[in-house]
Amino acid sequence: MVLEQQVSRPRAKLGEAGESRTVAWGMTSVLVAMYVINFADKAVLGIIAQPLAKELGLSASDIGLAGSAFFLMLSLGGLFSGALDKWLGLRWALVLLVVLWSVAMLPLMLSASFVTLLVSRMILGFAEGPNSPLLFSAAYSWHAPARRGLPGAVLTCSASIAKIAIAPILAYVAVTWGWRSALVALAIAGLLWAVLWLAVWKEGPYGRAANSGKADDADSGPDGSSPKMVAAPATDAEPAVPWLHIFRTRTFIGGVLLIAAAYALAAVVLTWLPSYFELGLGYSRLQAGSMFSIPSLIGLAIMLSSTWLSDKLITRGVGMRAARVVFPAVGMLIGGTLLVFLPFVDAPVMAVFMVSLGYAICTPVLPLLNACVSELCPPKQISGVLGVFLSLMAFGGFIAPYMMGRIVDAAGDGGDGYATAFQILGGVALVVAVMGIVIIDPARDKNSVRPHAPVVAAR
User: Fold this and answer.
1) How far apart are CA 383 and CA 85, in angstroms?
2) Fewest CB within 10 A of the end CB: N or C in the chain?
3) Tell me, what's the pLDDT at 427?
4) What is the pLDDT of residues 43-57, one digit of tens each?
5) Position with higher pLDDT, 59 vs 160
6) Count of the separate structural domains present in the chain
7) Are 434 and 332 spatial neighbours (Cβ–Cβ below 8 Å)?
8) Would 5 be classed as within a structural domain?
9) What are the counts of helices (DSSP H) followed by strands (DSSP E) for the chain?
10) Which pLDDT tens digit goes with each residue over 259-276?
11) Region 276-302: what's the mean pLDDT?
12) Which of the residue ranges 266-275, 352-361, 434-443 would you say has the lowest mean pLDDT?
């Protein structure tokens, strides 16, 4: 009978460091929930842009400036991710950030003006800046280096989930109860997530705490048992790498160029796509808000499938440069080409398809380049390195929304200004994709800056 029970009981799937893969993906799903709220906070300006502009008498340049100010502060805030991780740890750093997001919604609800809009978006951007590096560090603590492409993609797909599932709801809420109600909903969602996070989070076996031989700040393991020390592939016995050695590598520099171009496109989509669909292509406000999900649906399918394939290629012995760099850069070449030809398309349905596919096929560079850069440093430096990397990436978001607002104002009525701005972003994508293919080589640069790094066998 005992033997039969042993045979019938399913065995838990374990990872390379003995961790439960179910727990690993459970923790990742909690991080995804936070990232969904994070991207909904970013996207809400695009959803409420037109009613907000009408009420406050704002121009397209004003809305673009608010969007760019957000991404500027996002870039500056990201520089503090390493310090927050060191001072507070992942648990309390992320709680602090999400509470700040919720508070940042209050000024615009209480006193609507352009100055209030600008200040509240800047506060929100600064508070969201450290979030991405900390979230990726938290997720990577549960996944071995050779298998980080898919969890990184799942996190990045939170932007798509926010636009697929949350944006139509926010659009309906804003149309039905006014644009302020959308901000209230997001503030409540952030606070609820903080409660969930405090209840469930544990750091994984590939994180800083486990690798340095220390348990997390809680007294029990991820399944409620006493914490166990596990052997991780890389340990903090490995000396820290000088920061400038990492930042000077061609992988880091080329990665910044590639990811900043992709992020510029993402920032424009978050800030301007509903307005383009409404004012440029003639759809209603509710239709435009709901159609926000179309590029995200396409992007979700492309990102998950491409990053799964990238991980699979690496575990089968394909070089990291081919799987993590050339593969997504070719996609960026295709996406950039589609956007370059957008102004020559007259049919609204075809324009929606081209801008959606052009954006979506560029998105896999975001998680795959994160995974490349994370290989350049020991685990204890991942948060800091990704903080700088993603802060530099956010400069693309700082430039693009305001640029599009200026182009739209200069073009006057119609969709010509929107299409022209997307065309410029497509041209930039083509240039940096070629540069990335030529100069980025993570294996070469890892050997250069981490000559004694432990080698993790892909399985």
Assistant:
1) 7
2) N
3) 94
4) 788 788 878 888 888
5) 59
6) 1
7) no
8) no
9) 23, 0
10) 999 989 988 887 888 888
11) 81
12) 266-275
Q: In terms of residue numbers, what domain contains 405?
A: 20-216+232-449
Residue with tokens 């100069």: 439
Cα dist from 56 to 114, 366, 434, whole Å: 7, 35, 43
Residues 6+ apart with CB under 8 A from 450: 238, 241, 376, 377, 378
CA 319 – CA 196 distance, rounded (Å) = 39
**225 inside domain:** no
Domain annotation covers residue 280: yes
Q: Is the pLDDT assigned to residue 432 strictly greater than 90?
A: yes
Alpha carbons 403 and 64: distance in angstroms, whole number: 7
Cβ(288)–Cβ(275) below 8 Å: yes
Q: Which helix (H) or strand (E) holds 21?
A: helix 21-56
State the sign of the Cα–Cα–Cα–Cα dihedral 299, 302, 305, 306: negative
Give the model confidence (pLDDT) of 305-321 as tens digits: 887 888 888 888 888 78
DSSP states of 168-183 = HHHHHHHHHH-HHHHH
Q: What does the pLDDT look like over 143-173, one tens digit per residue?
A: 887 777 778 777 877 767 777 778 788 888 8
- Tokens (6 digits) for 317: 């012995």
| 434 pLDDT above the threshold of 80 | yes
Q: Is residue 272 part of a domain?
A: yes
Q: Could you tell me the two tokens for 11?
A: 């065995």
Q: Phi, psi (5° rounding) for residue 363? A: -70, -30
Q: Determine how many CB atoms are found less than 10 A away from the CB of residue 154.
A: 23
Question: Which domain CATH number covers 118?
Answer: 1.20.1250.20
What's 451's DSSP letter? T
Q: How far is the C-alpha of 90 from the C-alpha of 97, rounded, in Å?
A: 11
Distance between CA atoms of 103 and 192, rounded to whole angstroms?
A: 13
